[in-house]
Amino acid sequence: MRVALDVSAIPDDPAGAGIYVLELVKALDVLPPGSDLDLHLVARNDDGERWHSVAPRATVHEVVPIRRPSRLAWEQMLAPRLAKHLEADVWHGPHYTIPLMMPQSKPSQHRARSASVVTVHDLTFFDHPEWHERSKVTYFRPMIRAAARRAQVLIGVSDWTSKRLIELVGPRAAVVTIPHGVDHTRFLPSTGDGRARDLAALAGVGIRPPFIGFAGTIEPRKNIPSLVRSFDAIADDHLGLQLAIVGQPGWGSDEVKRAIAKSRHRDRINLTGYVEAEVIPALFRQATVVAYPSLEEGFGLPALEALACGAPLVTTTGSAMEDVVGDAAVLVPPDDDASLTQALSQLVERAGRREALSLAGPPRAASSTWQRCAQLHLDAYRFAIARSTGKVEP
Predict the structure, then answer these.
(1) Based on the number of CB atoms within 10 Å of its own CB, is 276 exposed (0-12), middle (13-18) or buried (19 or more)?
(2) I want to staple 306 with a disulfide (CB 3.0 to 4.6 A). Which of 121, 148, 180, 311 is the partner?
(3) Contact yes or no for 90/1 (Cβ under 8 A)
(4) Is the pLDDT reported for residue 109 higher than 70?
């Protein structure tokens, strides 16, 4: 089974959906030989070295233009030609879109076109366009609808996302849910002399305990200004407590800077920007509390990674995070400063409650692995081929 997986949209410093693609590729590359997978990665023409390193067994095609407008045009105009050249059984678009006019398949397979699979991470382009650049909303709304008509399989990253996808676009494609995994070799509770290594990693970016920690892309949906206000409300009662906001700036991140500038305790708030990979699990393990007050998520991978590290976590109700964390975290309504403030205050003050959450997190996250995620993708690829050949009902 020859699968062409488009990795051209993944930045050099991936977050969110980029982490999903990176970890999926790693896991697919080490599937056992009996999996019958011939993996081809379609990369930007300046990015082949990375993907050769990530997936040594895969074939890497360094053919996609670097700039976004050219890359999007290439996907629709030239990707079908590459799929035909490769005789791809499946084309997987892991970031909302696929080439809409796929080539004729190999005659022996008796289907009109190569099977297409597309991953949808959330539906905020429809539900909350204000959280995105206008140009992205204009492009991705019609492209998601088109993919839902033309693909054989749509992958939702959570039951929440799959349900919303069906409600909004009424897809002809089959919708399957494949949750993300966790790299349990990195995201695990602190053991032995691990605390000293964690503290050294954190000190390198100016973070020291005690602190409330956040990790994720700095963008409007993460609702970080609310976290800043809640920290401001409890800081006087907890001298020495810091707020560490870790992540690279995304679109709309200036609002966070303005919120910090207004804070009475801005000298105790550390906005680090992008950090090296080892800092994130260290942050989760050594935080007094981890806060992920996002307004809405299609999955919420940082919340799951925090649980795997045994972090006492506060996150929000109303979207995928509620299903991801279950009863292993404190849940508050999104965009409710008072509830977030109360939850943070109680956890900072109650060591017993923090310890109970620390013990609940790792078991909750244990079954979420990238290996399982990869196997479910393999099943989805086979399902897509079966649908395209008429072996199952369309």
Answers:
(1) exposed
(2) 311
(3) yes
(4) no
List the beta bridge partners of residue 62. 43
137 in Cβ contact with 157 (< 8 Å): no
Q: Is the Cβ–Cβ distance between 10 and 21 less than 8 Å?
A: yes
Retrieve residue 114's tokens: 């190569």
Residue 273 lies in a domain: yes
Residue count (the chain) = 394
Radius of gyration over alpha carbons of the chain, in Å?
Answer: 22
Give Dmax (Cα) for the chain: 72
Average pLDDT, the chain: 94
Alpha-carbon distance of 278 to 359, in angstroms, equals 22
Same domain, 223 and 281: yes
Question: Which domain does 289 fall in, by range?
Answer: 194-365
Phi, psi of 235 (to 5 degrees): -65, -35
Structural domain count, the chain = 2
- Residues 336, 380, single domain; the answer is no
Query: Quick one: pLDDT at residue 391?
Result: 73
For residue 363, cis peptide bond before it (omega within 30 degrees of 0): no
- Cβ contacts of 121 within 8 Å, gap of 6 or more: 16, 17, 20, 95, 96, 157, 161, 298, 299
Half-sphere exposure of 242 (CA within 13 A, CB side): 20
d(CA 300, CA 157): 10
- The alpha carbon of residue 373 and the mean position of all alpha carbons in its chain are separated, in whole angstroms, by 13
Q: In what order do the strands lie in the sheet with 289-292?
A: 269-273, 242-246, 211-215, 289-292, 313-316, 330-332
Residue 186 lies in a domain: no
**Tens digit of each residue's pLDDT (9 = 90 or more) over 4-42:** 999 999 999 898 899 999 999 999 999 987 889 999 999
Task: For residue 197, give the H/E element and its range.
Answer: helix 194-203
DSSP run (H or E) holding 150: helix 134-150
Q: For residue range 29-86, list pLDDT tens digits in order.
A: 999 878 899 999 999 999 999 999 999 999 999 999 999 999 999 999 999 999 999 9
Q: Please write the tens of the pLDDT for every residue from 266-295.
A: 999 999 999 999 999 999 999 999 999 999
Q: Any idea what the CATH number is for the domain that residue 206 is in?
A: 3.40.50.2000
Q: CA 259, CA 42: separation in Å to the nearest integer?
A: 40
Q: Would residue 231 count as lying in a domain?
A: yes
